[in-house]
Amino acid sequence: MSFRQKLLTAIVPRRWADEMEAESRSWMLHCNVCGLERSVWEMGGVRWKAAGRPSRRMHCPRCGQNTWHKLYRRQGQEHGGSGPTASLQPEECAGSD
Q1: Contact at 8 Å (CB) between 28 and 72?
Q2: In terms of Cα–Cα distance, which of 37, 31, 28, 33 is closest to 75?
Q3: Helix 14-26 to helix 3-11 angle, to the nearest 10 degrees?
Q4: Which residues of 35-69 are buried (b: 16+ CB within 10 A; e: fewer)?
Q5: How far is CA 41 from CA 45, 87, 88, 90, in A?
Q6: What is the pLDDT of residues 7-22, one digit of tens each?
Q7: What percentage of the chain exceeds 70 in pLDDT?
Q8: Reduced to 3 states, what is the DSSP secondary structure of residue 57?
Q9: Measured CA distances, 4 to 8, 22, 44, 58 (Å)
Q10: Are the beta carbons of 47 and 57 closer than 8 angstroms?
Q11: Which of 48, 62, 70, 90 could form a Cys-Cys staple with 36, CB 3.0–4.6 A?
């Protein structure tokens, strides 16, 4: 664990620390050059209660270049659950008239 991870998991309740690790493991960084994918947690970072799909410029250990990495959440992990997420079709969202 990185210093940041140790610090954060030491000061929050155990349940929050477990949620923080699980959610950080679901956020992936993808190198645009070689395709390497790593979780934020594996890289020593924390991404908890976050949203969006930003890009980060960082060093890639596989290709050795300073490249853009896309940050995204693994499919099925958007709502913090381990199971599949339900998706509503537009007609299911319409109110009953």
Answers
A1: yes
A2: 28
A3: 140
A4: eeebbbbeeebbbbeeeeeeeeeeebeeeeeebeb
A5: 5, 28, 31, 36
A6: 989 999 999 999 999 9
A7: 77
A8: strand
A9: 6, 16, 7, 18
A10: no
A11: 62
User: What are 22-58's pLDDT values in tens digits?
Assistant: 999 999 999 999 999 999 999 888 998 888 888 889 9
Residue 31 buriedness (CB in 10 A; 0-12 / 13-18 / 19+): buried
Cα–Cα distance, 30 to 60 (Å, whole number): 9
CA pair distance 40, 56, nearest whole angstrom? 12
Q: How many CB atoms lie within 10 A of CB 73?
A: 18
Would you state the pLDDT for residue 49? 87
The secondary structure of residue 10, as a DSSP letter, is H
Contacts of 15 (CB under 8 A, 6+ apart): none
pLDDT at 66 over 90: yes
- Could you tell me if 38 and 56 are in contact, meaning their C-beta atoms sit under 8 angstroms apart? no
